[in-house]
Structures are given as C-alpha cells and as structure tokens.
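## tool: complex_structure
## caller: assistant
## args:
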Amino acid sequence: MTEYSRFLDSSGTHLTYTAISLFRNFNEGLSEKEKQFLKHHLDACPACSKKLQEVEEVEQDAPSVVKMRSHWLSTTPLGYSIAAVLLLAVGVSVFYYWNTGGREQPDSSRPLNQSIAAEPTNPERFASNPTLESFVGRTARSKPGVHLLAPGIGDTIAVPFTFRWEGGKQNEEYTVVVIDNKNNEQWRETTRASSLVFADTLQSGLYYVKLEANGVLAHVGKFVVTPRPH
Amino acid sequence: MYLSQGTGGYAVIRRFHQKYSDVLTRVGVSDIDDIVHEVFVSLSRTDFSQVQNIEHYLMRAIKLHCWSLLDKALRHKSVIAENRDDPLNDDAVGEQNDPRTNHPDQLATLEGVELLTYVNLFKAQLSARDSQLLNLLIDETERSDIAKFLELNLNTLDTSIRRLRIRLAEFLKNLGYTYKSLERFVQN
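## result:
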C-alpha cells in the first residue's frame, strides 16, 4: 500500500465527484490519511469545493432509505405472504363484524333476542349518491348551524337508533328525513327536542339523513345499515 | 428490488438522470434504464456478506456509483476534446472507448483517486477488524504498532495482511483493473 499512501500524501490532484461523494457518504470508514487527503484538498481548492457543493445539492434531494415499504411489500415473496395474511385478517374481521357489529354498536338498542330474517346484500344499495354527497357534513344555514351528533358521517347503525343534534334555538321545530341512496324518502319525523328515535325497518344499504330546522335544511349526514344477521 | 421504480434507489438515479442526462449520453447512457443497469452491474460485484446495514450501505453505494458514471462521462468528454486537438493522432476514435488506456501522465493521479473510491467500497465488505487493519496499513503504521493495537503476534498479522491483499487484488480484478500500473499501488 506504500504507493497508495504516497499518493495520499500529495495534494495536487483534483478530486472526482466520486471521491467527494465518498468523503460525504463513507467518511467513517476512511483512514486518517484518506480523510486528511480529501479534507486538505477541499479546503485548498475552490474548484473542488464548488464540486462538493454540487454533490451536496444533488444528494440532499435524494431519499435516505433505499426502498419504499409499499414496493417491498409488492415485490418480495415475504411481502406477498404478509399481504395475503393481512387480507385474510381483514376478511375475517369483516365477516366477524357483519355478524356481530349490530350488537356491538354503542348507540344501538336493538334487543339481542330479536328474531330477524336473513337478508341478501345488494351492492347497488351501498353506492354513493353524488348529489347528496356534496351536502354531507355541510351546515346549510348561514347562521351558526345546527348539526348532527349522531350518527357520525358514515357510521353503521342498527335499528332502533336515536338521531341527536345540537346548536339549535329553543322551541325550534326540527324535522329528520331519512332518504336512501336513490334519493327516495324512507322516513320523516318532526320534534321540538334535540333527539328522535328511529324504530322503523330499513333494508341494508347507504342512507342520508337531512335535518331541517323550522323547515329549512340545516345539516346532512349519512349512515350505513348492514345486512341483518342470520 | 432495490432499483425498481418506487424505491429510494430509483429516486436517486432519476435525480441524477434529470440533472446530468446530457453528459451521461456521451458514455452511451442515454436513458434512466441504462443508468439503473450500470449501477446494478456495479453493485452486483459487491459481496454483501459482511456489510452491516445493507439498506444504508446500498443507498450510499448507489449515489457513489452514479457519481462514478458522471466522472467517467466527464473524463470521456475531455479525452475526445484532446484527441480532436491532436492532428497526428489517427486512433482518436478508437481511444474513445477506454480513456484510461492512454495519457500515461494522467494515469497515476486518475488511478489514485479511483483507487481511493474502490478501496473504500472494498472496506465496506470487510469485517470491522479487517477494515481497521487496512486503514492502519494505508496510514503506514509500523507493523509492530499494528500488532500491538490489534493484539496479534507478528506472524498472525503477516498472515492477515497477506489475505487482505489477496482479497483486495481479487476485488480490483473484478472491477476490471488488471493492468500493471494499478498493481503497484497496492503491493508492499
């Protein structure tokens, strides 16, 4: 290594971009002579110092990890295995939820011993309605609005269910209107209180709820009714 | 896997391609896939068995190989320019394929800086102890001091040094450095 060491003792050579990148990226592995060689030259040579700035600039934009997790998951056999296990877990969870979800909803007051006929699922009933979606979550009145507390947007509910809201004036008349995803009215009820119990039967599907205050649309929410258990 | 689209390695190469594509074209690396290929070929020569943190090492090595490609392209550009200026040089076109084979006055400096890069890539493949030994040799530390520092007797140290030299020679040979002028750097 004598010749190599002697070369490092000289400082007349301009550094390559590779050597500068080495100084930045592999500094901890350099020997003392190698470090001194690079450092002395960079300190003394404006051209190489400028190169160092260029290297820093380019490398600064580069990510610090070599592979992204999502890509790793989709390209390695282990990734496929993990993805398969996750899918299976999600499938089992959905199956379990659909079979037990109604009973576990905190807002649900449906009796556990209620005998309900099995109901086939129709995917069309779960499709979003673009027109109604544009109103969801918006408080329609210009003054500080009345807004629904329950159900939360997109909640899955079980009947009977209590609609709750807040923010209205005293003695204001509220109307709750439940409509399906085809904009067909399913249920309507009026009250001066801040809650209403819904006890009618609904098929599984996506529903929208309109809350009107003194006949003026105040708030729109949506909820899901899942298939009834066997 | 480490250089496919969506990986950090690919992002580094894309950044290089965006900034230096015009220069890299001079060494036949016209599009991003060519750079990916070149970097892959360079990385495939690495023995990863001793590399401590492969992902960390790879990201740094990918950057280094990208810069190495740029240096190669810039060197190529300067050789072409010099050959054009030399009316007596009939082999100018042929020489463009390997700028390292000519210009003996530049060889020593070029080889020295190149060797600095490759010796350090080699170090990344060594055990911590071997890497330490190599650094002590580069720093021209006395054998007796190395033996004391690494707590080895002189015979064992000599054996370790001999094995290290063989590995380094093999590493450089795999990189294509077979000509005599480079050997003098690593012997003795």
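## assistant note: Chain B touches chain A through 52 residues (CB under 8 Å). The longest helix of chain B spans residues 54-85. Handing back to user.
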